[in-house]
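#struct-help
A.M.: can someone run this one for me? Single chain, 137 residues.
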Amino acid sequence: MKPTLTLLVLVLFNQSSLAQNSSTDCEKKYQEWSRQDSVIIDYFSIPKINGGIKSIYQSINYPELAAKSGKEGSATVWLVVNSDGRAECVRFVKLSDEIFRLPILNAVKKQKFEPANFEEQSIDMVFLISLLFQKEK
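D.P.: on it. Structure tokens below:
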């Protein structure tokens, strides 16, 4: 069984506010993002998942216990794609079952992205990914 993946939302943040990656900084970034009512987005290019969404899909291992019991679930993952194209500050906005946390976390952290660009410079950008784990039909 493999999860079905859906890309949800992209939000642009000020590059200087995302420059560091300590646990406290990640929490501040997440809190800033969660308080936003709306986001004004100027001209920029969004990050791209190297290999496309299928590369994340293929790297997530459906938990064996979940597969055996037929358990299905969903998650929404919040992360920052940094200017080097790596995932930072990975947080779970929604997670239906803890059994899916580690496989998702591992897949997202090892994924390489093409970073967003603004005025021809790579920038950090917040990314939300919605994942749905379901049995093959």
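A.M.: thanks! Confidence is low (pLDDT under 50) at residues 1-21.
D.P.: also worth noting: The radius of gyration is 15 Å.
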